[in-house]
Predict the structure of ABM domain-containing protein.
Amino acid sequence: MSSEIHVVAIITPVAGKEPRLREVLQSLAENVQKNEPGVLKYHFFEQYNSASGTNVFVVEEMYKDEEAAAAHGSSDHFVEAKKVLGGEGLLAAPLDVKMIKPVFGFSSR
């Protein structure tokens, strides 16, 4: 059994603040890539609903183990990003973080 930790996070921006949120998230992703070797995947996606004009960001995360996941959550850049998200009122809803586990299927060929 793998010790990898899989996470999906849903981030809902306040309407009109998507560009600033995108900046904060991109900076966070760059810091994670540079400074956290235990993070195996940190991939952002954006869902956009043109009918309602709303969007959400979806993050796929994979950590080498529980220690790497814990280190990410307490890293300076993650803590700072959370402060900015709250301080600048960028979120329309609380972060929705789900710990998940693979059940079947494949990720590459």
Notes: The chain has one domain: 5-100. The mean pLDDT is 93. The radius of gyration is 15 Å.
